[in-house]
Write a structure and sequence with these properties.
The protein has helices at 36-40, 60-73, 88-99, 121-128, 138-141, 144-157, 172-188, 191-195, 208-219, 236-253, 281-294, 303-316, 339-342, and strands at residues 2-6, 9-13, 30-32, 43-48, 78-84, 103-109, 132-136, 162-164, 198-204, 225-231, 267-268, 323-328. The protein is an alpha/beta fold.
Amino acid sequence: MLEVSEGNAHVPLALNLPPRVPLARLPTPLEPSARLGAAMGIDLVYKRDDLSGLELSGNKVRKLEYLLAEAEAQGAQVIVTCGGVQSNHCRAAAFAAARRGMASVLLLRVADPAHPPALEANAFLDHLVGAEIRWVSPDEYRHRTELLAAVAADLRAAGRRPYVIPEGGSNGLGSLGYVLAMAELKAQLPDDWVEEPIAIAYAAGSGGTGAGIELGVRVLGWEQARPLGFAVCNDALYFRRAIEAICVDARRRWPTLPEVAAGEVEIDDGSVGPGYAQATPEGLELIRQAARLDGVILDPVYTGKVLLGLAARARSGSLPSRRVVFVHTGGAFGLFPFAAELSG
């Protein structure tokens, strides 16, 4: 029996979770919106997972606690993973690996691998921590699963012991980080928020966070919680299927977990905009408002799109509840490449 506590509140999880290594600063705070929520006409609180650390900030570290525990159990020496050039996951994975005495190899997607961009923000931090960066094109990245396997095979041939982490740390094991997070969140909320319908808003980028949230509310029997993912790329159907597949993977390893069907997963793809890591003027303006009204840093890649979607749903009256928990999954370093657009 596992318990997560905040003050005198205790939420039991009748689930034997696997080992994890301590990487995140937990529990992360729950903070009410100072002014922005009221301006949007909703009761808004932030689950500040951006404060899970500095170099390990954001949602990725919760997943990495379980993934690196398995890597260590297998005697891994080097972590291999992938993402975009400004991947928060890759940055967090590289720092987590360094903290645990492992090397890292990162496959980063760029438009032209022969002429990669100057190192800045997350990519600079990858370099700073000593990660081996391998630039890959968008066409190559479409076959990332095969690429990761090939890199791991090369490392094994060289006498090293690799551990492959999928994009975003999004598999059944990684998703357990957000099963735990939901127990933590429920323990922090006042009784009237727990007992009444609330929306739990999050960014859907690779599906692992959403899978953990969906599993977590079911494990807890938290029927009043309504997870609502906002796609940052691809469409709603893609993420419903991705989340279902991750939950199937989790149930394969831990059969006592509940089933999550794609049709039960609510995804809003209305704030994707031009595409992944591309922002709209309205999205940038909301990021400014979050900073100026609430003193909160959002980013155009992930959390800014959640706020954009929440604002649209608040205007249309289509939120599952006017009480909203915004799972702030970090991404502050990814804000800096947008400095010119935000300074206008």
